[in-house]
Model the fold of this input.
Amino acid sequence: MKCVKVPLRQLNDTRIKLMEKGIMSMEYRIKACDDYGYIPITEDIEDYEIDDIELEPMKKVPHNFSELLEDELNSEEIENLRTSFDTIGDVVILEIPEDLQDKKQLIGDAALKFTKRKSIYMKKSAIKGTTRVRDLEFLAGTDNSITIHKEHGARLKLDVKEVYFSPRLATERKRVMESVKDGEKILDMFCGIGPFPIVIARNKNVDITAVDINEEAIKYLDENIKLNKLKGNINTYCGDVREVSKSFNLKFDRIIMNLPGLAYTFLDVAFNLIEDGGIINYYEFSDSYDQGINRLKNTCEKLGKDIEIINTRKVKSTSPGEWHVAIDAKIN
Done:
């Protein structure tokens, strides 16, 4: 390799000059030997002594996911994969299109290097069943699906194979938390591992009733209550909220209904449990807000209540033309 030979005392100043001229090679390491240093160059330069020296190549470190896969996938395929990451603690869950299944191992290995997480899984099914879980296939790293995810200062322990959790709702959970006032009585009808209750109770002095039909989810919520320093109080219940709520002897100032596929089927339960002037944070999948607003209004009309829509928000895109939407309603 062609190198500029300079006394060691001049090595750093010469290195800077050669970099500024754009002729220093970045593919090899500078070598220091006895009283001289050898700086690799890409072309000859006058006023310096040039030697041909064997140098150690620089280890090429990919700067992004694209560089890791640029020889295997086209730019569109790479960009689609970049938006299909769910990073949950030390676990990464990938959504790999059908036409790239033959390269899933390559993609998994690249994701392991790029994300520097411990475990890489691939989605094998849609979310299914009353417990809202999906099949996952292990691709790379360590096959350990239990992790602790950190969000807004909260620690959330879970097993990604046994419970549903979306890190993409972090901003929405913070938004709801910031709207909560100290002293509220809150019901989370479909709490999962408790991201809404934990984030809220860490920051607000409230009483939260958290219900979920998935036993594993409630098990992890109970652990998460112990993992976090809470200002508020959380009571957990495992079962169908329609049945569990029959034993409640109170009404709630706020009800969170984050089960976007089926929440509308529980609106009658929520409206019977809401305090006068209480807030319902309602979620569903839709291409607009109209469907959800109409469902809320129709339920109010049937039960002889009044409604005020106080906020609407697109939480995230779920498919082309469809959104996970949030509607905040005040019920009187």
In short: The longest helix spans residues 290-303.
